[in-house]
Request: fold
Amino acid sequence: MIDYSETRDRHPVAVELSQAAVSFGRGERAVAALQETSLKIAEGEFLALVGPSGCGKSTILKLASGLLQPSSGAVIVGGKEVSAKALRIGMAFQNPTLLPWLTIERNVMLPLKIVRPFRSQYRSKKNTEYRDRVHTLLADVGLQRFANHYPWQLSGGMLQRANLCRALVHEPSLLLLDEPFGALDQFTREELWATMQSLWMKRKPTVLLVTHDLKEAGFLASRICVMSARPGRIIDDSTVDFARPRTVPMTFEPEFTALNQRLRELIIDARTDVAEEA
Ligand SMILES: Nc1ncnc2c1ncn2[C@@H]1O[C@H](COP(=O)(O)OP(=O)(O)O)[C@@H](O)[C@H]1O
Ligand SMILES: [Mg+2]
Reply:
C-alpha cells in the first residue's frame, strides 16, 4: 500500500509565514486583519485553514499568493519572499469564474495561454499537447464529454470541477482554494471532495484550503489549522492521518466525529471570547 502520510519535517517548506501581520488603513482607522502569524506548509501538504468569519483566512491566502504584502513580518514561498510575478499558483474560489464565451476546454486551457513558460508555445500546442493535457484533467473529474460545452450548459458542481481543472492545468506548485465548495448542495459537495482528493493524490500539489466546513477539512486535509476570531491567529494545529482515499462513510466513524467535535469546540470558544470582549 502506498503511504500517503506526510510529515512536516521530511519535506521542504513550500510556504512560510514568519510573524506575518496584516492591517488595513492607517492610524486610528487601522483595522488589524491578521495578528503576527507563523506557519510553515510543507511541499505536497494539504492544509485546511478553518475559523470564524472575518478571522483572516482569506488574508492568509492572499499573502501566500503574493497579491497582498504583510504589514510586518515576512512571507516566503518556494524559498523566496513573495511577489505575485514570480509564483506559479493555481486558485479557485466559491464562484467558478469561467468565461461565458469560451468552451470548457478553452476555459481550462486559459492559464496555458497566459502563464510562463507555457504561453510562448500556446499557438503551436493548443491543438495537440495542451489539448491532451486539458482532456486528461477533464477526464479525471468526469467531464470528458463536456469539453465543447459552454459554461451555461453545466451545473454548479460541474462548473466547479472545470474550475479546479483550470486551477491545476499549468501544474502550479501551490494551489489556493477559498471555500471552493461553499455554494454547492451537500451531495454535490461530497462528490467534489472525492474529486479534489483524487486530483491531489495523483499530482500532490501543496494545497491551502480555506473552509468553514469542518467535515470538509477532515475529509480533505492532511493538517488542519484553526484560527481565532479577528484579528486572527492560529490557535490549533493538528495532523489528520486518516487513511486515503477517504470516503464519506468514514466521516461517520468515531475518530472522525471526535476530531470534528474538538475543532468545533475550539471555534466556538474562539467566537465567545470575542463576544465577551465586545
Ligand atoms: N481591504 C480591506 N480593508 C479593510 N479591512 C479588510 C480588508 N480586507 C479584509 N479586511 C478585514 O480583515 C478581516 C479579515 O478578513 P478575511 O481575511 O477576508 O476574513 P475571512 O476569515 O472571513 O476570510 C475582516 O474583519 C475584514 O473585514
Ligand atoms: Mg474569506
